[in-house]
């Protein structure tokens, strides 16, 4: 309640710069929370799709396996399977092109890698906002504090009163801007780290799936070790 009262005092007594800093920090907080919520929901969905992607290999043929991945075009596992199928068919049926210099393994590797790179770029959208907010919000809040303290001291000096009860209130209210900057930055940093970990997990599963797809389209069988797929990131070339 006291902090809310202090923040209202900062707003009511602050000048244009102080209010602009407060509005900027609130806007940065809203932007970061929107990114965190939207991207977290995406990561949860992709993790669920990664779990269901194992059903792809428990099928009699490719068409049946593809149906198990659903019809959602945003499903990266389905998109990767389609990329691999189209690359294999294109290399097999098309002649007299430059890609004929590449064997089928290199051609499919290139197609799958392009699909993974495109999904990676989409997966990382918005993380730059969190990184920017997390790194700049404390300094913006500090700037607001310094500006508020400066004007508080100027007001106290012009009034000719420098007692502790006259100084503590205005300066304490100015320090709220630093706290506001930290309150904006900390969730952004924590959200960024959590999303990076989630994205890394999804990309690991997608690379593993791509490796199995590559083996399937080149050799006709999924690479296995015992009952589990060998998780090896897809390499270029």
TrEMBL record:
The keyword Protein transport applies. The accessory proteins ExbB and ExbD seem to form a complex with TonB. GO terms for biological process: protein import. Residues 100-201 form the MotA/TolQ/ExbB proton channel domain. Belongs to the exbB/tolQ family. The chain crosses the membrane at residues 20-41, 127-150, 174-195. Involved in the TonB-dependent energy-dependent transport of various receptor-bound substrates. Protects ExbD from proteolytic degradation and functionally stabilizes TonB. It is a multi-pass membrane protein. It is found in: Cell inner membrane; Membrane. Its main location: membrane. Keywords: Cell inner membrane, Cell membrane, Membrane, Protein transport, Transmembrane, Transmembrane helix, Transport. InterPro entries: ExbB/TolQ_transport, MotA_ExbB_proton_chnl. GO terms for cellular component: plasma membrane. This is Biopolymer transport protein ExbB. It comes from Acidovorax cavernicola.
């Amino acid at each position: 309640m006291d902090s809310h009262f202090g923040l209202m005092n900062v707003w009511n007594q602050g000048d244009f710069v102080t209010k602009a800093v407060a509005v900027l920090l609130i806007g940065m907080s809203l932007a970061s929370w929107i990114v965190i919520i939207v991207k977290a929901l995406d990561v949860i969905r992709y993790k669920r799709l990664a779990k269901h992607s194992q059903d792809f290999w428990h099928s009699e043929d490719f068409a049946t396996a593809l149906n198990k991945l659903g019809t959602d075009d945003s499903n990266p596992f389905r998109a990767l399977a389609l990329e691999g199928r189209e690359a294999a068919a294109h290399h097999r049926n098309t002649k007299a092109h430059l890609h004929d210099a590449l064997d089928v393994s290199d051609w499919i590797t290139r197609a799958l890698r392009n699909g993974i790179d495109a999904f990676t770029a989409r997966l990382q959208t918005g993380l730059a906002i969190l990184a920017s907010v997390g790194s700049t919000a404390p300094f913006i809040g500090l700037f607001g504090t310094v500006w508020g303290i400066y004007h508080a001291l100027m007001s106290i000096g012009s009034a000719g009163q420098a007692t502790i009860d006259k100084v503590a209130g205005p300066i304490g209210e100015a320090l709220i801007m630093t706290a506001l900057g930290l309150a904006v930055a900390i969730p952004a940093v924590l959200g960024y780290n959590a999303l990076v970990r989630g994205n890394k997990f999804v990309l690991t599963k997608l690379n593993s799936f791509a490796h199995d797809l590559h083996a399937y389209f080149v050799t006709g069988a999924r690479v296995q070790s015992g009952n589990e797929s060998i998780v090896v990131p897809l390499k270029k070339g």
